[in-house]
Amino acid sequence: MTASYQVYPIGRIHKDDSGVRIEIEDAFQEALDGLDGFSHITVLYWFHQNDTAKKRGILKVRPRKDPTNPLTGVFATHSPCRPNLIAITHCRITAIDGNVIRIDEIDAYDQTPVIDIKAFIPMDRLAKESVRVPDWVNNRRKGGGAP
Amino acid sequence: MTASYQVYPIGRIHKDDSGVRIEIEDAFQEALDGLDGFSHITVLYWFHQNDTAKKRGILKVRPRKDPTNPLTGVFATHSPCRPNLIAITHCRITAIDGNVIRIDEIDAYDQTPVIDIKAFIPMDRLAKESVRVPDWVNNRRKGGGAP
Question: What does pTM read for this prediction?
Answer without folding.
Answer: 0.93
